[in-house]
Amino acid sequence: MSKHLISHLFQSVLTLWAAFTIAFVLLQALPGDAVLIKFLASDFGLTPEQITELQQTYGVNLPLWQKYFHELGAIFTGNLGFSVQAGLPVSQVIATNLPPTLLLASLGFTAAIVLALSVAFLSAFTCFSWLRQALHALPSLFVSVPVFWLGIVLIQIVSFQLGLIPVINPGHWEGLILPTIALAIPISAPIAQILIRNIEATLLLPHVAVARAKGASHVWVLWHHVARNAVLPTLTMAGLLFGELLAGAVVTETVFGLSGLGSLTQQAVNNQDTAVLKAIVIISAAIFITINLIVDLLYPILDPRLRVAQEARP
Amino acid sequence: MSPTRHTHSHPTQAATISVSANEHLPHKAIHTVHFWLGKRLSTLRQWPISLLLSWLVIAVVISWAFIPGLFTAYDPLTGIGKFKLQPPSWVHLLGTDALGRDVYARIVYGASHSLSGAFVAVGLGLTVGTLLGLFAGSAGRKTDTFIMRLVDVILSIPSLLLSLSIIVILGFGTVTAAIAVGAASIASFARLSRSEVLRVRNTDYVEAAFGSGGTFLNVLWRHVLPNALTSVIALAALQFGTAILALSTLGFLGYGAPPPTPEWGLLIAEGRNYLARAWWLTTAPGIVVIMVVISANRISHALSERRS
Amino acid sequence: MTDAAKLPVLDIKGLTIGYREKDNLTRVVHDVSFHINAGEVVALVGESGSGKTTTAQTIIGLLADNGQLEHGSVILNRTDISLWSQKQLASIRGAVVSLVPQDPGSSLNPVQTIGTQVSEIFRIHNRGSRQIIKAEVLALLERVGLSQPELRYNQYPHELSGGMRQRVLIAMAIALKPLLIIADEPTSALDVTVQRHILDLIDDLRKEVGTSILLVTHDLGVAADRADRIVVMRNGQIVEQGLTENILKSPASEYTHQLLTDAPSLTSDKKRISLSKQQPTHPAIDIVTVKNLSHTFPSHGAAQPFRAVDDISFSVRKGTTHAIVGESGSGKTTTLRAILGFLKPSQGDILIRGTNLSTLKGEELRQQRRHIQLVYQNPYSSLDPKQIIFRAIEEPLLNFTLFNTQERADRVYNMLQRVGLSPSTAERLPRALSGGQRQRVAIARALILEPDILVLDEAVSALDVTVQAQILELLGKLQQAYGLTYIFVSHDLAVVRQIADTVSVMHHGRQVEIGRVEDIFTNPQTDYTRELINAIPGKRRFNSVQDNFIAA
């Protein structure tokens, strides 16, 4: 088991390193120079000597391969580089912006799961075929809605038409309600789709017929023989969904004027602040990889079929 | 309507089959065409309404892109100041914006930007991704592992961040946004086409094809490609919708075409400033985007159903 | 005997069932009536599409959602349950009528332990506390012949073999001592030797508990062995019903008669399909020779690599049929793949038409395929779903660039005719054909290159008996016409007896016996072969009928 853990850990680290390399290669190909963009602006009026000096402090002119190893080594000490735009270390910028985004993302994720589970299981429970069909159509509608548009429409209806939540200076939690909904609805769609498909496929399996032949009611069957079997495979989506969630946060934060990783990303793109963008890419890859690692390790505990296969491995 | 549907379709099919059965060798081609036509027409009648509507939506939007002048008489770029922010009416179907431009005209003319962007994006992802997947699926174990590991790494980066990183390098604009969205979809195309190739490669009929003396290229061309491609095409349809969504997001964030281009995402962004006074500015383009994306998804679903 | 025993446990009257699909209703069961008395075994026999499974599902109230009971009544223990709600039905399922399903592999919930799943039936029907239930479950597991019930209790389904899983499912079915057990093809997914043990177990339990059994099966041999009465169904209708003995001796309908002649297990030695013997004997050439063949698969899990085939030797005379018989895991598939050159064996030599396969590579191996062709077990997966039949049959000719377009077309249509398919089949896709038609296509495709050797991998085991008999007959005719040599891989000794001249019996990768078919059947040398022969259903038919007379 511990060998299994170590090999998984090793693979995760390898993937992370590859993600870093890709981010480095991608963002180092940048022709513009963030330092120059900021400091050559007319209102700065620095001399060329001063600009060269600045470039050297930021390590802009190092050869590419040196820079690569320099940055790779720096990551292990928690040093993610320097944000030219904010004039602060990237780690510090991230540290202030990560918590609100994580809060929004986890609220959105929870809401999405609740929404997806209710849609999927309601459609399995209901005996009205029109309701089932409507519920089945819901995810494909949800997945097609642009997050930013949903946010705007929510503001329009809830804040302007109904006047329920003020647009300017809502309370902390009150201000999170609409962003959470806007984020949750599109994210819930793929979960609900997979759940519905899995539930329907599981209901057709012979072991469900056997359970019904034992005299189990529909509710009993859904709870004991369908729920776990159908929910298990959706776990593998968790990592991918997180990526969607983060992307959703970029947009949601922009629409609702919230500060966080999302608005930071937007600023970084606008100002070509590559150090910040690189850090965000690496952090999101790291979270993705961690979630997948946890799922991989959790899966055999939840699915007995995989336990044996692993124990047998030398 | 529904009972007649069956009585119409079956006799045509049955008749054509029996004709081709009676005189199979001479005139075979003609009967095959008849058979084919009859089959197509009858399958069209059996299509669900939602699928027909989806194709209709896509057809209308494509016509918008090619011949916008046919659908609206207004100019999408210049408006008349005194008619600004008018609500929907018979004169302006979807109202006007802050500069007095007709919103419907802007949506119609915007179709070419959004659609061409989506086509470029899907084309890029489809060609590069599928070739990569095909190569990985039919090459040796080491090449396969290497390519798929790389694909996994790319998939670990959220696609929007990947697109943004590419935009930072290439700069803002319609084409760069399309490339950024397409590049971000390469990994999923590669993954799907590889798994499809592996699935088909493991089927009995592929082994049977080798067993009857087929060479590698023969079998790849006759069996692996046709059977693997259906799912890939279904994914392409799905990605078309996703690309429209992603492009409108990039447009909304201001990384796509610059104003006053009537790109759909940009239209919504511009309408944001008039939320309280002009709901139609944001609502209308948003609903168009949703309809196109839903249609693309529905078509993709129908395509992937045909596989089984 | 009491009054209750005289009344039938189950009485079905005029049952008519259809499936709704969009707007039209397809009727699959027409006006079916039969009854089952207390303690009786009634077999519902029919081929695929006969409506036997739908009938059985209706009795236990498990008809698919789009299934519709149009009219008729299902009287179970003097109560008509045909109009009951699902809730009412749930109260009798498991308690009054229970089910032994077809496929033990997928009929247990993979994420629950055996104990949980057997206990479930007690918990659903509120029978006793946790401790009492556990004790009962352990006793049940022991009763159905599972060793170490305590261990099994905490195991998951994937840790058990197919036969053990079927025992668990039987334990569930008898747990509450129901009046009626519906056994839906209870053994068709199991190996022959396991089959017999499971059927014996069901028989014993029936005698012990006094339950009635509805045995749904496609295998007339099984029905002959186990049933008191037989109900024969075809196309949703009952063709005939009566005492097993009467049906077997003097079937009233043409169809039953056909079934009886086609069922390999009920056919005596005399009816041999292979015509190779009557042919002028070929000069005795060994066209295929396998010498000391061994193959080892590297295994990732276990410490030792897996030896699938262990030192096998045999040779096949030109124009004869050699059968390789064995249960799953016996190594017969590995042997076959090695002969076809799909797999390079770890050791040993294979000579085909005098050429050693191990010396061939690439293009030479491809050329070799002109002489040896394969027909797969599953006609549904061996044809490309996107290729019309014409292209499928033509393809081998294209591979070797033989003939021009017109000549190829002529040959394809000629071959279609030879395998008994109409020319119109050529333009169709595989999905428009039945299983038997597809297998004919597969044979046509294999023969278009005019090979010397045809390898048949369980080529008839996925087919209904009547279709199976037709295909076997076709193979016999083709063998005579072309002087073909067959290598026939099968688990079904009854079929082997009909078609083969010589046979290798394989068990756990070893060849336990080889010889002429008559010798092996009349004088088996090993216990395993004897067990295989005894497992052929249909042998005990007269004995069992007599047993029941004595019991009554």
UniProtKB/TrEMBL annotation, chain A:
It is a multi-pass membrane protein. Keywords: Cell membrane, Membrane, Transmembrane, Transmembrane helix, Transport. CDD domains: TM_PBP2 (cd06261). Its main location: membrane. The keyword Transport applies. The chain crosses the membrane at residues 12-30, 102-128, 140-164, 176-196, 238-259, 279-299. Pfam families: BPD_transp_1, BPD_transp_1_N. It is found in: Cell membrane. Residues 98-299 form the ABC transmembrane type-1 domain. Belongs to the binding-protein-dependent transport system permease family. This is ABC transporter permease. The lineage of its organism: Bacteria, Pseudomonadati, Pseudomonadota, Alphaproteobacteria, Hyphomicrobiales.
UniProtKB/TrEMBL annotation, chain B:
The chain crosses the membrane at residues 49-67, 118-138, 232-258, 278-299. It is a multi-pass membrane protein. The keyword Metal-binding does not apply. Keywords: Cell membrane, Membrane, Peptide transport, Protein transport, Transmembrane, Transmembrane helix, Transport. InterPro entries: BP-dependent_transpt_permease, MetI-like, MetI-like_sf. It is found in: Cell membrane. Pfam families: BPD_transp_1. Residues 111-300 form the ABC transmembrane type-1 domain. Signal peptide: none annotated. Its main location: membrane. Belongs to the binding-protein-dependent transport system permease family. PANTHER family: D,D-DIPEPTIDE TRANSPORT SYSTEM PERMEASE PROTEIN DDPC-RELATED, OLIGOPEPTIDE TRANSPORT SYSTEM PERMEASE PROTEIN APPC. This is ABC transporter permease. It comes from Hohaiivirga grylli. The lineage of its organism: Bacteria, Pseudomonadati, Pseudomonadota, Alphaproteobacteria, Hyphomicrobiales.
From TrEMBL, chain C:
The keyword Cell membrane does not apply. SMART domains: AAA. Gene3D superfamilies: P-loop containing nucleotide triphosphate hydrolases. It is a peripheral membrane protein. The keyword Transport applies. It comes from the Bacteria. Keywords: ATP-binding, Nucleotide-binding, Transport. GO terms for molecular function: ATP binding. Residues 12-260, 288-533 form the ABC transporter domain. InterPro entries: AAA+_ATPase, ABC_transp_ATP-bind, ABC_transporter-like_ATP-bd, ABC_transporter-like_CS, Oligopep_ABC_C, P-loop_NTPase. Its main location: membrane. Coiled coil: none annotated. It is found in: Cell inner membrane. Belongs to the ABC transporter superfamily. This is ABC transporter ATP-binding protein. It comes from Hohaiivirga grylli. The lineage of its organism: Bacteria, Pseudomonadati, Pseudomonadota, Alphaproteobacteria, Hyphomicrobiales.
